[in-house]
Design a protein that fits this description.
By secondary structure, the chain is mostly helical. The protein has one domain. It contains 7 helices and 2 strands, in the order ββααααααα. It has a two-stranded antiparallel ribbon with strand order 1-2. The longest helix has 36 residues. The protein is globular. The model has no long low-confidence stretch (mean pLDDT 81).
Length: 224
């Protein structure tokens, strides 16, 4: 995972790696699940519809506890999409063959992908904050005192970088430890680490989106 990603092919001069191909697959799977879940919804839901609704309700309650109900409804599509994509990406690393099959590799095992997620979060934070109004957007960089401007601007760029590095570092560390333990205890370690990884991958998705929600709450605080 720490090695440079292999370029599989190019499209219009752009390099396509296994992580990118896997991301396309994840996006397709999420799209299909969304279409199935929202097609022909019933008052008495099926088991699948009930599962999806339970997941949505859990995320609404989770983000609502950070942002409040009003803000949560407004920013839920962005935060929920971010969470679902990250957790799917993390769990693909647990599928047999991930990292071995040439066209299949967990996206979040690549720093370029986690940096991309950090950039998306950064752009969303700036967009939602600026949408309130230009005056309020720039005012938050000079409050409570003007000489804080350089530090607050720097902090704005540190936030997405820390999100990206934290996600990549934790996934990288988890896979590295798994590989080392597998070399020492090839029979017991895979079963033990598989169980721990199921929890660990979910935690990393929660932490990334929770911090993004907290930053979003800070950036849009003047809405209240």
């Amino acid at each position: 995972m720490g090695e440079a990603s292999e370029v599989l092919f190019k499209i219009l001069g752009l390099e396509v790696t296994a992580e990118v191909v896997t991301m396309w697959g994840i996006i397709a799977v999420i799209a299909v699940i969304s279409l199935i879940a929202t097609h022909n919804m019933k008052e008495r839901p099926s088991a699948f519809q009930n599962l999806i609704e339970t997941g949505v309700e859990y995320l609404l309650n989770f983000f609502g506890g950070i942002l409040g109900e009003k803000k949560c409804r407004r920013y839920f599509p962005f935060l929920a999409t971010l969470f679902v994509f990250i957790i799917f990406s993390n769990y693909t690393g647990l599928i047999p063959g991930a990292g071995i099959f040439r066209y299949f590799k967990a996206p979040t095992s690549s720093l370029s992908v986690t940096l991309g997620l950090g950039v998306v979060s950064f752009a969303a934070l700036q967009y939602y904050a600026f949408r309130i109004g230009a005056r309020h957007y720039f005012k938050r960089f000079v409050s409570p005192v003007a000489f804080m401007l350089p530090l607050l601007v720097l902090d704005e760029f540190i936030k997405p970088a820390s999100l990206a590095l934290r996600l990549f570092g934790n996934i990288f560390g988890e896979e590295t430890v798994t590989e080392e333990l597998y070399g020492l205890i090839p029979i017991v370690a895979p079963m033990l680490m598989m169980g721990l990884s199921l929890l660990f991958c979910a935690i990393q998705a929660v932490v990334f989106t929770m911090l993004t929600a907290i930053y979003l709450e800070e950036a849009t605080e003047i809405e209240e």
